[in-house]
Design goal:
The chain is an alpha/beta fold. It contains 12 helices and 11 strands.
Protein backbone atom coordinates (compact mmCIF):
# COMPACT_ATOMS: atom_id res chain seq x y z
CA UNK A 1 0.00 0.00 0.00
CA UNK A 2 2.71 2.48 1.02
CA UNK A 3 5.37 1.74 -1.58
CA UNK A 4 5.33 5.34 -2.84
CA UNK A 5 4.95 7.04 0.54
CA UNK A 6 7.60 9.65 1.32
CA UNK A 7 7.83 9.44 5.07
CA UNK A 8 10.35 10.68 7.62
CA UNK A 9 10.92 7.93 10.19
CA UNK A 10 13.18 8.01 13.25
CA UNK A 11 14.43 4.69 14.60
CA UNK A 12 15.29 4.95 18.29
CA UNK A 13 17.99 2.44 19.17
CA UNK A 14 17.65 1.78 22.90
CA UNK A 15 21.00 0.01 23.38
CA UNK A 16 23.90 1.82 25.07
CA UNK A 17 27.13 2.27 23.13
CA UNK A 18 28.99 -0.51 24.97
CA UNK A 19 26.28 -3.01 23.99
CA UNK A 20 26.32 -1.89 20.36
CA UNK A 21 30.07 -2.38 20.29
CA UNK A 22 29.59 -5.84 21.75
CA UNK A 23 27.13 -6.59 18.93
CA UNK A 24 29.93 -5.90 16.47
CA UNK A 25 32.41 -8.11 18.34
CA UNK A 26 29.83 -10.91 18.59
CA UNK A 27 28.65 -10.72 14.95
CA UNK A 28 25.12 -9.76 15.96
CA UNK A 29 22.98 -7.63 13.69
CA UNK A 30 22.05 -4.18 14.97
CA UNK A 31 18.28 -3.91 15.51
CA UNK A 32 17.99 -0.55 13.77
CA UNK A 33 19.46 -2.17 10.64
CA UNK A 34 16.64 -4.74 10.67
CA UNK A 35 14.03 -1.99 10.74
CA UNK A 36 15.90 -0.04 8.08
CA UNK A 37 15.86 -3.11 5.85
CA UNK A 38 12.09 -3.37 6.20
CA UNK A 39 11.59 0.33 5.49
CA UNK A 40 13.84 0.20 2.42
CA UNK A 41 11.69 -2.59 1.03
CA UNK A 42 8.27 -1.24 2.01
CA UNK A 43 8.72 2.53 1.84
CA UNK A 44 11.82 2.96 -0.34
CA UNK A 45 11.26 6.69 -0.87
CA UNK A 46 11.22 7.46 2.85
CA UNK A 47 14.04 9.07 4.81
CA UNK A 48 15.20 7.22 7.91
CA UNK A 49 17.33 8.51 10.77
CA UNK A 50 18.74 6.53 13.70
CA UNK A 51 18.83 8.04 17.18
CA UNK A 52 21.02 6.43 19.87
CA UNK A 53 18.83 7.56 22.74
CA UNK A 54 20.75 5.79 25.52
CA UNK A 55 23.94 7.76 24.84
CA UNK A 56 24.32 10.70 27.26
CA UNK A 57 26.05 12.91 24.68
CA UNK A 58 23.34 12.53 22.05
CA UNK A 59 20.89 15.42 21.82
CA UNK A 60 17.29 14.21 21.91
CA UNK A 61 14.58 16.01 19.93
CA UNK A 62 12.20 18.17 21.93
CA UNK A 63 9.21 20.39 21.32
CA UNK A 64 8.34 21.18 17.72
CA UNK A 65 11.39 19.25 16.49
CA UNK A 66 9.57 16.05 17.38
CA UNK A 67 7.15 16.85 14.55
CA UNK A 68 9.98 16.58 12.04
CA UNK A 69 9.18 12.86 11.90
CA UNK A 70 6.03 11.09 10.78
CA UNK A 71 6.72 8.11 13.05
CA UNK A 72 9.10 6.74 15.65
CA UNK A 73 10.23 3.12 15.87
CA UNK A 74 11.74 1.77 19.11
CA UNK A 75 14.17 -1.15 18.98
CA UNK A 76 14.97 -3.59 21.75
CA UNK A 77 17.53 -2.87 24.46
CA UNK A 78 19.51 -4.72 27.13
CA UNK A 79 18.81 -1.99 29.67
CA UNK A 80 16.28 -2.56 32.45
CA UNK A 81 13.40 -0.13 32.31
CA UNK A 82 12.56 -0.25 36.03
CA UNK A 83 16.08 0.89 36.95
CA UNK A 84 14.93 4.46 37.52
CA UNK A 85 18.34 5.55 38.82
CA UNK A 86 19.86 4.89 35.39
CA UNK A 87 19.96 8.06 33.28
CA UNK A 88 20.24 5.94 30.12
CA UNK A 89 16.76 4.65 30.95
CA UNK A 90 15.09 7.77 32.31
CA UNK A 91 16.07 9.96 29.35
CA UNK A 92 14.39 7.45 27.02
CA UNK A 93 11.22 7.38 29.11
CA UNK A 94 11.07 11.18 28.98
CA UNK A 95 11.54 11.06 25.21
CA UNK A 96 8.68 8.58 24.83
CA UNK A 97 6.45 10.81 26.94
CA UNK A 98 7.36 13.82 24.79
CA UNK A 99 6.51 11.87 21.64
CA UNK A 100 3.14 10.94 23.14
CA UNK A 101 2.47 14.63 23.83
CA UNK A 102 3.57 15.59 20.32
CA UNK A 103 1.04 13.14 18.87
CA UNK A 104 3.49 11.37 16.54
CA UNK A 105 2.76 7.63 16.07
CA UNK A 106 5.19 5.13 17.61
CA UNK A 107 5.91 1.46 17.11
CA UNK A 108 8.23 -0.70 19.18
CA UNK A 109 9.24 -4.28 19.87
CA UNK A 110 10.57 -5.82 23.12
CA UNK A 111 12.00 -2.77 24.92
CA UNK A 112 9.49 -0.84 22.83
CA UNK A 113 6.42 -2.42 24.42
CA UNK A 114 7.92 -1.87 27.86
CA UNK A 115 8.60 1.77 26.95
CA UNK A 116 5.04 2.22 25.70
CA UNK A 117 3.66 0.89 28.98
CA UNK A 118 5.97 2.70 31.43
CA UNK A 119 5.90 6.07 29.66
CA UNK A 120 2.09 6.07 29.88
CA UNK A 121 1.91 4.99 33.55
CA UNK A 122 2.10 1.19 33.38
CA UNK A 123 4.56 -1.17 35.04
CA UNK A 124 7.29 -3.63 34.01
CA UNK A 125 8.97 -6.24 36.18
CA UNK A 126 11.25 -9.24 35.77
CA UNK A 127 9.31 -12.23 34.46
CA UNK A 128 9.20 -14.90 37.21
CA UNK A 129 9.11 -17.56 34.49
CA UNK A 130 12.56 -16.52 33.33
CA UNK A 131 13.83 -15.78 29.86
CA UNK A 132 11.63 -16.14 26.80
CA UNK A 133 14.01 -16.77 23.94
CA UNK A 134 14.14 -17.77 20.30
CA UNK A 135 10.46 -18.14 19.51
CA UNK A 136 7.46 -17.01 21.52
CA UNK A 137 5.09 -19.90 20.93
CA UNK A 138 1.36 -19.90 20.33
CA UNK A 139 0.74 -16.18 20.66
CA UNK A 140 -3.02 -15.68 20.74
CA UNK A 141 -5.01 -12.62 19.72
CA UNK A 142 -7.39 -11.34 22.38
CA UNK A 143 -10.92 -10.16 21.60
CA UNK A 144 -9.57 -6.62 21.17
CA UNK A 145 -6.67 -8.03 19.18
CA UNK A 146 -9.12 -9.53 16.68
CA UNK A 147 -10.44 -6.02 16.05
CA UNK A 148 -7.03 -4.35 16.09
CA UNK A 149 -5.57 -2.84 12.94
CA UNK A 150 -2.10 -3.63 14.31
CA UNK A 151 -2.80 -7.36 14.02
CA UNK A 152 -4.99 -7.23 10.93
CA UNK A 153 -4.02 -10.13 8.69
CA UNK A 154 -2.22 -12.12 11.40
CA UNK A 155 -3.33 -15.69 12.15
CA UNK A 156 -5.48 -16.29 15.21
CA UNK A 157 -2.44 -18.02 16.76
CA UNK A 158 1.16 -17.56 15.67
CA UNK A 159 4.80 -17.64 16.79
CA UNK A 160 7.18 -14.69 16.94
CA UNK A 161 10.90 -14.09 17.48
CA UNK A 162 11.78 -13.11 21.04
CA UNK A 163 14.59 -12.62 23.56
CA UNK A 164 13.72 -10.98 26.88
CA UNK A 165 13.73 -11.30 30.67
CA UNK A 166 11.20 -8.60 31.66
CA UNK A 167 7.48 -8.21 30.97
CA UNK A 168 4.69 -5.67 31.23
CA UNK A 169 2.86 -6.41 34.49
CA UNK A 170 0.38 -3.54 34.60
CA UNK A 171 -1.24 -1.88 31.62
CA UNK A 172 -1.35 1.92 31.59
CA UNK A 173 -4.65 3.79 31.31
CA UNK A 174 -5.75 3.92 27.70
CA UNK A 175 -4.11 0.62 26.76
CA UNK A 176 -5.61 -2.35 24.93
CA UNK A 177 -4.18 -5.83 25.39
CA UNK A 178 -4.04 -7.32 21.90
CA UNK A 179 -2.12 -10.62 22.20
CA UNK A 180 -0.93 -13.02 24.92
CA UNK A 181 0.97 -16.26 25.36
CA UNK A 182 1.58 -18.64 28.26
CA UNK A 183 5.04 -17.35 29.10
CA UNK A 184 4.47 -13.61 28.72
CA UNK A 185 0.93 -12.38 29.21
CA UNK A 186 1.40 -9.06 27.40
CA UNK A 187 2.62 -9.79 23.87
CA UNK A 188 0.99 -6.89 21.99
CA UNK A 189 -0.44 -3.55 23.07
CA UNK A 190 -2.07 -0.42 21.79
CA UNK A 191 -1.42 2.53 24.09
CA UNK A 192 -3.31 5.80 23.66
CA UNK A 193 -1.77 8.52 25.82
CA UNK A 194 -1.64 12.29 25.58
CA UNK A 195 -2.07 13.11 21.91
CA UNK A 196 -0.31 9.99 20.68
CA UNK A 197 -0.74 6.31 19.89
CA UNK A 198 1.94 3.66 20.42
CA UNK A 199 1.55 0.19 18.88
CA UNK A 200 3.95 -2.36 20.31
CA UNK A 201 4.84 -6.05 20.52
CA UNK A 202 7.01 -7.95 22.98
CA UNK A 203 8.11 -10.17 20.08
CA UNK A 204 10.17 -9.02 17.10
CA UNK A 205 8.48 -8.87 13.65
CA UNK A 206 11.67 -7.26 12.31
CA UNK A 207 13.80 -10.37 12.90
CA UNK A 208 14.28 -13.41 10.68
CA UNK A 209 15.80 -16.84 11.34
CA UNK A 210 19.31 -15.75 10.40
CA UNK A 211 19.31 -12.72 12.68
CA UNK A 212 17.84 -14.68 15.57
CA UNK A 213 20.45 -17.40 15.03
CA UNK A 214 23.18 -14.77 15.34
CA UNK A 215 21.64 -13.45 18.56
CA UNK A 216 21.18 -16.93 20.05
CA UNK A 217 24.78 -17.81 19.20
CA UNK A 218 26.00 -14.70 21.01
CA UNK A 219 23.79 -15.52 24.03
CA UNK A 220 25.21 -19.05 24.39
CA UNK A 221 26.60 -18.58 27.90
CA UNK A 222 23.39 -17.31 29.57
CA UNK A 223 21.28 -19.85 27.66
CA UNK A 224 23.44 -22.67 29.07
CA UNK A 225 23.58 -21.12 32.55
CA UNK A 226 19.79 -20.79 32.61
CA UNK A 227 19.35 -24.45 31.67
CA UNK A 228 18.04 -24.21 28.11
CA UNK A 229 21.05 -26.10 26.69
CA UNK A 230 23.60 -28.45 28.20
CA UNK A 231 26.63 -27.03 26.41
CA UNK A 232 27.64 -24.01 24.29
CA UNK A 233 28.15 -26.44 21.43
CA UNK A 234 24.49 -27.41 21.62
CA UNK A 235 23.55 -23.74 21.31
CA UNK A 236 25.71 -23.40 18.21
CA UNK A 237 24.12 -26.52 16.68
CA UNK A 238 20.66 -25.04 17.21
CA UNK A 239 21.74 -21.71 15.73
CA UNK A 240 23.26 -23.49 12.74
CA UNK A 241 19.95 -25.29 12.12
CA UNK A 242 18.12 -21.96 12.18
CA UNK A 243 20.55 -20.62 9.60
CA UNK A 244 20.07 -23.67 7.43
CA UNK A 245 16.30 -23.31 7.54
CA UNK A 246 16.64 -19.63 6.66
CA UNK A 247 18.54 -20.68 3.55
CA UNK A 248 16.26 -23.66 2.80
CA UNK A 249 12.76 -22.64 3.97
CA UNK A 250 11.10 -25.54 2.13
CA UNK A 251 13.04 -28.16 4.13
CA UNK A 252 10.35 -30.31 5.75
CA UNK A 253 12.91 -31.98 8.04
CA UNK A 254 14.23 -28.67 9.40
CA UNK A 255 10.74 -27.24 9.78
CA UNK A 256 9.80 -30.26 11.86
CA UNK A 257 13.05 -30.28 13.84
CA UNK A 258 12.68 -26.63 14.84
CA UNK A 259 8.85 -26.61 14.89
CA UNK A 260 8.78 -23.60 12.57
CA UNK A 261 5.97 -22.74 10.18
CA UNK A 262 5.02 -20.07 7.65
CA UNK A 263 4.23 -17.55 10.39
CA UNK A 264 8.00 -17.36 10.96
CA UNK A 265 9.35 -18.11 7.49
CA UNK A 266 6.99 -15.99 5.38
CA UNK A 267 7.75 -12.28 5.63
CA UNK A 268 4.24 -11.58 4.39
CA UNK A 269 2.97 -12.97 7.69
CA UNK A 270 5.91 -12.23 9.99
CA UNK A 271 6.18 -8.51 9.15
CA UNK A 272 2.46 -7.81 9.01
CA UNK A 273 2.52 -5.62 12.13
CA UNK A 274 5.10 -3.30 10.58
CA UNK A 275 3.12 -2.86 7.39
CA UNK A 276 -0.04 -2.28 9.41
CA UNK A 277 1.66 0.42 11.48
CA UNK A 278 2.68 2.30 8.35
CA UNK A 279 -0.63 1.84 6.54
CA UNK A 280 -3.14 2.19 9.38
CA UNK A 281 -1.45 4.53 11.85
CA UNK A 282 1.33 6.57 10.25
CA UNK A 283 -0.22 7.39 6.88
CA UNK A 284 -3.67 8.31 8.28
CA UNK A 285 -2.03 10.58 10.88
CA UNK A 286 -0.61 12.74 8.11
CA UNK A 287 -4.06 13.98 7.11
CA UNK A 288 -5.30 14.83 10.59
Amino acid sequence: MSTHAQLAICIINGYPKTSRENFDRSNVGHPHDLYQDFLRRYTPQSTVDVLYAADPGVELPTGVSLDAYDGYIWTGSDLTIYHHDDARVTRQIKLAQAIFEAGVPSYGSCWGIQMAAVAAGGEVKKNPKGREWGLARNIQRTAEGRESLLLQGKPERYDGFTMHLDEVTRLPPGAKLLAVDEHTHVQALEVVHGKGVFWATQYHPEYNLREMARLISARADPLVKEGFFETPEAVQTYARQMNELHDNPDSVALRQELAVGDDILDGGIREQELRNWIDHLVLPSLTR
